[in-house]
Amino acid sequence: MERKSFADMECPVAHALEHVGDPWGLLIVRDALHGISRFDDFHRSLGISTSSLTRRLNELVAAGVLERRPYQERPQRHEYVLTPAGQDLKPVVAALAAWGVAHDPPGTTPVVLVDDTTGALVDPVVIDRNTGRDVADPSIVFRPGPDATEFDRDHRGPAPAPA
Amino acid sequence: MERKSFADMECPVAHALEHVGDPWGLLIVRDALHGISRFDDFHRSLGISTSSLTRRLNELVAAGVLERRPYQERPQRHEYVLTPAGQDLKPVVAALAAWGVAHDPPGTTPVVLVDDTTGALVDPVVIDRNTGRDVADPSIVFRPGPDATEFDRDHRGPAPAPA
């Protein structure tokens, strides 16, 4: 076999990647979160071919992440707008951006995440909603769950110490 | 042009995806966060071909996300362990898992994220470290930054309202 289907994997990470797993998919979502909605603007932003962009936009529409909607008649034109599920990827993109800033920062800052109520920059961190603890803390770990297979129970637990 | 290079994109999301952008890359990181470190176990978990898995593991090592280290002599065997930068992807994977649970939940729960100090399940949420505000709040938005180009200033701002 070349690969399992993501949808067949009983894991929310795999299910999420089925929607946006292509790296271009997440960059299109990023651009949509930046307010870009028109085909030509995605194309200018990303520099991928129009055929690739069309295919990926259609995949994100089929996945329920973007909605295609008309913004002009004669000639009819469409834009691509995040659905509520797509909008909910903002925290994922923010967490990914924070990782990029920490581990492979670009030299410039074309876009920032700001709190519009104050204008201050936002510093995204992932915490446990119930306790406020930082998910990065080593005591917060993945463990076999109620539906773990024997393989899961034997192999999934806290990761070995970092190198 | 088919695509821009991610590394040339002055955006931390693009830089982050350069390291783990392949959807399989993030699933390998997920498995490593689950404590999986050996080739055969990644192979059993993911069901991709050994050649694909070898290539992706090598890419993650080159990207500084995994370290390959010996765990046995005669015959020499290696395991793949998260570097500190790789370990720092735990919040990203947690945020992605939370999105999957909310928008495309799998039917079963083979793995859970738990707080080992209490044994309680963790509910990951992305907040602003400075204010504690939920990044999902509509008032937290991407805006053009100090190095924005004319295109960025014209096109990047709060996204249109969700469909």
Order of strands, widest sheet of chain A:
1-2
Determine the structural class of chain A based on helices, strands and strand pairing. Answer: alpha+beta
Largest sheet of chain A: 2 strands, antiparallel
Give the DSSP E fraction of chain A (strand runs of 2 or more residues).
15-25%
> Globular, elongated, flat, extended or rod-shaped: what is the shape of chain A?
globular
Low-confidence runs of chain A (pLDDT<50, min 5 residues)? none
- Helical content band of chain A: 25-40%
Number of strands of chain A: 6
Helical element count of chain A? Answer: 7
Q: Name the pair of protein chains with the most residues at their interface, and give those residue counts.
A: A-B, 117 and 116 residues
SSE succession of chain A: HHHHEEHHEEEEH
Tell me the distance between the termini of chain A: 32 Å
**Assembly state of the chains shown:** homodimer
Whole-number mean pLDDT of chain A: 91
Computed Rg of chain A: 19 Å
In a few lines, what is going on in this structure?
Chain A is of the alpha+beta class.
Walkthrough of the structure:
- Helix content of chain A is 40%, strand content 18%.
- In chain A, the strands form two sheets. Chain A has a two-stranded antiparallel ribbon. Chain A has a two-stranded antiparallel sheet with strand order 3-4.
- The radius of gyration of chain A is 19 Å and the shape is globular.
- Chain A starts with 11 loop residues before the first helix and ends in an 8-residue tail after the last helix.
- In chain A, 40% of the residues are buried.
- Strand 5 of chain A pairs antiparallel with strand 5 of chain B, so a sheet runs across the interface.
